[in-house]
């Protein structure tokens, strides 16, 4: 089933890493079996997108490509094998593409082609272009339906607010992977960045008590305030990273039993001791979701002696997205600026938008394109 599509659209094309982006008018992608064409309403920008595209972060992908990550879109046309999605429907457009005949062949749209021959082939030959464009073609299974009536008319979210899902889903994937339960105490570290802040929001929505770690007392106070405003009954504590491993472990343990840790350490902080402190503070049988970049953060005495589970996690599973949307539609997250205060940019302001995304980070902050 198709609806009339315009012949051309505008897309942000990266010709080479050294040339940067330019806005091109290009033929619109057409629906093929297994795909949907989306009218992109909001396209998320992550804090290190600039580093990915200028080569500072050594992520591997072929050029030229249309940039991007995840998006919120409206279905504009569908491949002939779509059985559930409908034209006009609002969807979350997920950036994690998996091989249909082998889901281990996985890559992140327009960011990283992954490590395997199959994912590289899929990226290069089939799903090359991302969502920083007016239209994009994506796999059918990457389009997650959103109940627009409930979310927008009922709960009052704007479409640009819904884009914050792209941040919240990532920690949700980690927290669900280590089976965090309501009432448990979770350390989020560091918590003052984009994904860490989102991790605090998700852990609170799951009914956990959160201990947020960060190196800046002012940012921690703002984070506490943000959580209390959005969820007045939330249980949120903070610990400043002092740089002394034992001091920080003691500061965490002062809050009592700690069940789990969610880690979002960026490469720049890989030498920081906060994760070692958090793991050392765990109870026997504690779990750690390692979503950032650090080496094994504990002695074997601690890991073996206390039955600690360390689980690496890349993004989330497809089922996690559906479960997350249920939480959002049930109203388990705050509304308005306590949910997200989003800044949006037109495609032509791509440089300013990426600079802004690198600076405007933390709980309830998001930068996106409105193509
Ligand atoms: N596993 C996955 O699927 C997945 C998905 C997305 C991202 N990630 C990883 O998550 C990382 C965080 O991304 P983000 O967007 O949240 O980054 P971000 O917004 O830039 O936040 C970075 C965080 O790290 C802290 N930090 C920076 N340098 C530090 C240091 N030397 N010592 C202690 N803390 C330090 C920052 O503290 P201040 O606020 O004090 O500056 C802030 O809390 C990324 O680098 C990425 O590698 C993983």
UniProtKB/TrEMBL annotation:
CDD domains: MDR
Keywords associated with the record: Metal-binding, Oxidoreductase, Zinc
Cofactor(s) in the UniProt record: Zn(2+)
GO molecular function (one): oxidoreductase activity
Every Alcohol dehydrogenase-like C-terminal domain range: 196-329
Domain called Alcohol dehydrogenase-like N-terminal: residue spans: 33-147
Protein family (similarity comment): Belongs to the zinc-containing alcohol dehydrogenase family.
Protein name: GroES-like protein
Protein source organism: Mytilinidion resinicola
């Amino acid at each position: 089933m198709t609806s009339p599509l315009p012949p051309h659209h505008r897309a942000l094309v990266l010709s080479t890493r050294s040339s940067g982006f330019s806005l091109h008018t290009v033929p619109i992608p057409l629906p093929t079996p297994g795909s949907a064409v989306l009218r992109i309403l909001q396209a998320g920008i992550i804090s290190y997108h600039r580093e990915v595209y200028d080569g500072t972060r050594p992520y591997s992908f072929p050029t030229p490509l249309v940039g991007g990550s995840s998006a919120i879109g409206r279905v504009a046309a569908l491949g002939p094998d779509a059985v559930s999605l409908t034209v006009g429907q609002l969807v979350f457009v997920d950036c994690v593409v998996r091989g249909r005949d082998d889901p281990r062949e996985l890559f992140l749209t327009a960011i990283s082609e992954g490590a395997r021959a199959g994912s590289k082939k899929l990226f290069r030959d089939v799903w090359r272009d991302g969502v920083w464009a007016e239209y994009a073609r994506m796999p059918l299974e990457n389009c997650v339906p959103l109940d627009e009536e409930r979310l927008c008319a009922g709960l009052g979210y704007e479409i640009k607010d819904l884009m914050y899902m792209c941040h919240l889903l990532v920690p949700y994937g980690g927290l669900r992977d280590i089976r965090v339960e309501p009432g448990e105490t979770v350390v989020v570290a560091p918590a003052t960045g984009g994904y860490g802040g989102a991790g605090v929001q998700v852990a609170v929505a799951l009914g956990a008590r959160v201990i947020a770690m960060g190196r800046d007392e002012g940012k921690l106070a703002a984070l506490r305030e943000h959580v209390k405003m959005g969820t007045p009954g939330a249980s949120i504590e903070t610990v400043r990273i002092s740089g002394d491993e034992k001091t920080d472990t003691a500061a965490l343990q002062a809050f009592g039993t700690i069940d789990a840790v969610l880690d979002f350490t960026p490469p720049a902080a890989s030498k920081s001791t906060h994760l070692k402190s958090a793991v050392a503070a765990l109870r026997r049988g504690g779990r750690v979701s390692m979503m950032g970049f650090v080496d094994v953060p504990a002695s074997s005495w601690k890991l073996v002696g206390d039955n600690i589970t360390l689980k690496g996690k890349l993004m989330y599973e497809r089922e996690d997205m559906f479960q997350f949307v249920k939480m959002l539609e049930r109203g388990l997250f705050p509304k308005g600026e306590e949910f997200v205060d989003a800044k949006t940019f037109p495609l032509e302001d791509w440089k300013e938008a990426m600079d802004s995304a690198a600076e405007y980070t933390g709980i309830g902050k998001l930068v996106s394109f409105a193509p």
